[in-house]
Amino acid sequence: MPEEIPVTAILVLLSVNVGLVAILFFVVLGLRGKIKRLEQLLVSRRKGDPAVSEKASAGEVTSPETEESNTWDVSPGGPFDRFLSEDPSRRNLAKKEQSIAYRKWRQQNGLNWSNS
Q1: 46 and 2 belong to one structural domain
Q2: What angle do helix axes 7-47 and 50-58 make, rounded to 10 degrees?
Q3: Are residues 60 and 23 in the same domain?
Q4: Helix (H) or strand (E) holding 23
Q5: Domain containing residue 42
Q6: pTM for this model (two decimals)
Q7: Whether residues 91 and 74 fall in one domain
Q8: Which residue among 24, 27, 38, 80 is the one 20 to 30 A from 74 at the CA level?
Q9: To 10 degrees, what angle do helices 95-108 and 79-86 make?
Q10: Res 89 pLDDT > 80
Q11: CB atoms closer than 10 angstroms to residue 75
Q12: Burial group, residue 101, by CB count within 10 angstroms (0-12, 13-18, 19+)
């Protein structure tokens, strides 16, 4: 005849399982909120909504693309174009090398915030 399992062991296993399910539930809720914000950001970018881009700049709406390279002014005629036009060979550099050279150029020309 099989051994009987103590009731306390069953209760401990059951409570551990309930706890794990509760943790999993809260993790899923958190991911759902992040996905919803990301979806709103993508839809607003597609529509060109300036209100959301203001929120993004204020840090209220976060984006996975908020990296240093995206904060540079790369508009036509901006500092990055001046950087490339000063030495056309810079266009042929790898992106990483171009980035490093651009940072040095900005430092030399006093365009970094640390120089103000």
Answers
A1: yes
A2: 130
A3: yes
A4: helix 7-47
A5: 1-66
A6: 0.36
A7: yes
A8: 38
A9: 100
A10: yes
A11: 9
A12: middle
The 10s digit of each residue's pLDDT in 5-57 is: 889 999 999 999 999 999 999 999 989 988 988 888 888 888 775 555 555 55
How far is Cα 31 from Cα 61, in angstroms, rounded to an integer?
Answer: 15
Residue 22: the pLDDT is: 96
Q: Are residues 95 and 111 in the same domain?
A: yes
| Dist. CA 91–CA 24, nearest whole Å | 48
pLDDT at 18: 97
- The DSSP output letter for 78 is S
CB atoms within 10 A of CB 70: 9
Spatial distance between the Cα atoms of 16 and 32, rounded to a whole number of angstroms: 24
- Using alpha carbons, select from 52, 70, 72 the residue that is nearest to residue 61: 52
